[in-house]
Amino acid sequence: MRYQITGKQIDVGEALQTHVQTELGLVVQKYASRPTEATITFSKSAHEYVCESTVHLSTGLTATAKARATEIYAAFDACSEKLDKQLRRYKRRLKDHYKDRTEPVELFGASSYILARESDVEDMEPETLAPVIVAEMQTQIPSLSVGEAVMQMELAGAPVLVFRNQKKNGVNVVYRREDGNIGWIDP
Fold it and tell me: Coiled-coil region(s) at which residues (predicted)?
């Protein structure tokens, strides 16, 4: 796993870096098979130290935690406990959702486009109504139940997830609404 340990106007010594790598490595290895990157940032707010951690996993999950304490090691330990709890909950959710599944999740390919917006002129009408396509790539669309799709969307922290409904075999969308609820589009 790749670690990026930094301090905002704080000197992060070798002892703290070693402590962070050892403890965070133990926490992440308990629940995740292939972590890819961890970013830990220490800062000071008045008399307290603040530790912010972000761990990216190969499954696409990003776990984040933030903690405060009067000592820098205590701030990291509290942050590490929060990450441990978050990863434990995610792993339990995955086990609960996939315990009844007899076959692996089926994926099929689709094109994904990123459309550019004109940043210079926002209020004026564009010359042409056709947007400029900046990037085109292939993406995988999983075949899931609605409950599994909502769980995957929440785990990934995404605002929307496109999936193929297992029961109806059609393309569906789940998304997070502004009121905090989950919306489901079933055409």
Answer: none
Query: Which residue is listed with tokens 């086990």?
Result: 95
CA distances 78 to 13, 40, 73, Å, are 19, 13, 9
- Write down which residue in 65, 98, 131 finishes a domain: 98
Which residue range is the domain that position 131 belongs to?
Answer: 106-185
42, 12 contact by CB (below 8 A): yes
Same domain, 12 and 86: yes
Domain count, the chain: 2
Flag whether pLDDT at 42 surpasses 80.
yes
Answer yes or no: is pLDDT of 114 > 70: no
The CB density around residue 21, as the number of other CB atoms within 10 Å, is 15
Domain finish residue from 74, 98, 122: 98
More confident site: 93 or 183: 183
For 23-36, what is each residue's pLDDT tens digit? 988 888 887 766 67
